[in-house]
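mind reviewing both lines:
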Amino acid sequence: MNIVEIKQELDSLYSRVNPPYGVVPEWHEPAVTDEEIAAVEERLGVSLPAEVKEVCKVFSGITDYTPYFMGEQFRAFQDKAAQIIGQEEADMLEDDVEIGTIYPLTEWGVYDEDSWNPKEESYFEIIDEYEQARAEGEAGEYDNVVAHIDCEEGIISDNLFVHIGDYNYGSVFICLNPASKNFGAIYNVFDCKSHVYLMVYKIADNYLDLIERLKKSLEIQLQSDNK
């Protein structure tokens, strides 16, 4: 699909969703160059998926709050979550993610002081404590410490599980491990209230899929607003 056309469609959608209406807001960051892409790959130590480079050569990063509806994929995720955290907890989950920021490609994997970072050492210490307590039969209500859905166990500790954005319940990551069957997939990571300490679940198969789903979600919002 033509990324320039997708950007033009997104321009139109954003101009109709948020005021001032009728103009294109500064919702995205400038495109990156081949040299900047090469520098990111060198810093991360990995070759980026082709669709990431394709999109980011047209625009890089999203800075305007955007609804993100998973639709049928959310229902499949909810069914899988029920097997891990129980049906009652899974029923409390809603298809209501609102992505606040997708960072420019040059800032992927770089945290600022305001970012929620589940890869911090303190999180691993807490997870280790709960794992030990569970092994000793003293974990209480915590049946699981991390719920992994559509990803490998322990993915958070993988250096190639890279932070790329934030949203209203946590952080957005991309799997850049070329050995993973989910190479290029996009994930949400967030605190879950009861049975798990963190939940990690896939929201898009790849970066282009993420952008296309954002476009679809804006279309759904506009349809809802116009009813």
Notes: The chain has a mean pLDDT of 85.
